[in-house]
Amino acid sequence: MATVTEAVKESLIGATQPESLSTEARLSFLKHSRRGDDGELYMNEEDFIDAIAPPEEDYHKIKREQYGILFNVADRHKRGRISMSEWAAFDNLLAKPDAEYEIAFRLFDVDGTGLIKSEAFQKIYEQNRGRDSIPFDFNSEWATLYIGGKNKRHEMTYPQFAQMMRGLQGERIRQAFHLFDKDKDGYIEPEEFERIIRDTAGHKLSDHVLENLPTLCNISTGSKISYANVRAFQNVIREMDLLDLIIRNATKKSSDGRIDRTDFLNEAARLTRFSLYTPMEADILFHFAGLDVPSGRLSLDDFAKVLDASWQTSVAKLGAISDTADRVVSKSQQFLHSLLESAHHFGLGSIAGAFGAFMVYPIDLVKTRMQNQRSVLPGERLYENSIDCARKVIRNEGFRGLYSGVLPQLVGVAPEKAIKLTVNDLVRSRFTDKQTHAIPIWAELLAGGSAGACQVVFTNPLEIVKIRLQVQGELLKKSDAAPRRSAMWIVRNLGILGLYKGASACLLRDVPFSAIYFPTYNHLKRDMFGESPQKKLGVIQLLTAGAIAGMPAAYLTTPCDVIKTRLQVEARKGDVTYNGLTDCARKIWKQEGFRAFFKGGPARILRSSPQFGFTLAAYEVLSKLLPFGDDEHDAHHAGATAAGKTEPGVGLREAKAPLPYLRSRNALKILLDLDNSFGRVKVPASLEGSRFFSK
């Protein structure tokens, strides 16, 4: 949680975030980072793994610690720690459409030149391969096509590297088959086939397939596995996504939701033009999916055991129940979180609004009494000006007299501010361009005016009670017999309809006030102070913008405020009475002149401008001191949204994680195509002079 000093400092002077850092990425960084001795927030390798691979997930396919190798890509300055700007760069990298291959490329691009040296590639590979892994021959004919011959090695560009990685798994399987086919008859033992597949593709296959790999020999009459079987199996692995699509379409068309081998091949012919599946590939698919279904007619659940790498027995049996429960729990948690967050904002807004109203309340009282002064003759005027009014209130009623009627103001300010801000934001969002965030000026005026109109529901009863309490002090001085009335007495005496006396004048004041204030305030923040998604303004800037915007809004609507005050104040004996808005305006003009419409105008400016400033300042500081969860270390909801579920989420089960984090996992899968031990072996501090792996 931010300290008081930090909260006040950031609230006053504002803060600028890294330009490319998204909200989700920032919250994730704050959740998992720690503060160093120099005061800088950073993530070490363990924090980084927590950010992209939440501990509570299932990592039986790809071990959680293996995600740590991606730390070397994010740690651009090789300090063994990642700053917020480095995390932003990594997050931006994950958002690229080809992020998986580019992340893998940067791991081998030791010098950061955009080229991979063949020597560095082989050395990094050797540093990360498992001790018992099947060796790979970089001098093979296939490898030399990409990196050159043994004596003529050349550097690889990013496109060349990506294309090589695309075909690498197939070459590894081919070399491994030759290694085990010692008598060169084109056959290997089932156990040897299992060793090859576990070593080269175990991270992509379900437990069901891995446990039954030796049974592949049963699709033919012999007891061994041919190279054709191996290649067909490898093609099935490569085309999992297309298989998924074909199977989904075929089962939807089936009356019982099941298909056989013929249905599959027919649907494949309809959906593909050139990538037709061979009979052997179809046999392999139906063999592994139908081990428990002798009939040969298979459902989506049967195919999930092959296509979904995360498939486990418990998942297969309880998948539907689990998914439904997850959705219900997720929606309930989101609703509860939104409800609590709204209550939190409403609470802070209420406190801040009450604080702002309290700070300027004496000015509001002076303004009201000046506006209610109806005599034009010097000898009959109770107050000469605003300063004289304040002085006489203190002298006759004491300092507490400046706060007459403050309680209903504090009670009513919360719903008033809440509805005004909510309606303004809602209408603005409806007319704001989602791409450019631009909004036409007429829409800004409409949003502000709508907000002002809606707030009258709360404002008018609040105003009439407040005003009558504010002028009560001077009535008591004129007549000792006049009883002091409470707010509740005024409410009971007026009734529901009476509380909305002068509502037309209140509308006439609040609609133009908000229509002027909100557009002016937003343009000042953006055009004068440069507010943007990356630049957060401090209280000083917000206070200045609010004060400037409040000046024209307050002064230009003063005539409406004067009329409203005259209509809502209980007329004294001998005072002029008014029969509505038009009658009031006509009598003021006739008896007091044009200047009377601007009585209390300066006091209104002095009240309205700082009131918004105090309110916004208090809200900013309270938000820092009392955040909804700890932004740096809790941020539970936002952090969960950013991280999602990184495992499982492939094949027939839809991935739940956000796209950047799925790509982080997929980038690791590309590296595991080289060797399934990538990330498990501790990389040395340096690579013969290279700074790439230094921490």
Automatic annotation (TrEMBL):
It holds the Pfam family Mito_carr. The keyword Transport applies. The keyword Transmembrane applies. It comes from the Eukaryota. Gene3D superfamilies: EF-hand, Mitochondrial carrier domain. SUPFAM superfamilies: EF-hand (SSF47473), Mitochondrial carrier (SSF103506). GO terms for cellular component: mitochondrial inner membrane. Solcar repeats lie at residues 340-430, 439-527, 537-625. InterPro entries: EF-hand-dom_pair, EF_Hand_1_Ca_BS, EF_hand_dom, MCP, MCP_dom_sf, MCP_transmembrane, Mito_Solute_Carrier. It is a multi-pass membrane protein. It is found in: Mitochondrion inner membrane. GO terms for biological process: malate-aspartate shuttle. Homodimer (via N-terminus). Belongs to the mitochondrial carrier (TC 2.A.29) family. Calcium-dependent mitochondrial aspartate and glutamate carrier. Transport of glutamate in mitochondria is required for mitochondrial transamination reactions and ornithine synthesis. Plays also a role in malate-aspartate NADH shuttle, which is critical for growth on acetate and fatty acids. This is Mitochondrial aspartate-glutamate transporter AGC1. It comes from Exophiala dermatitidis.
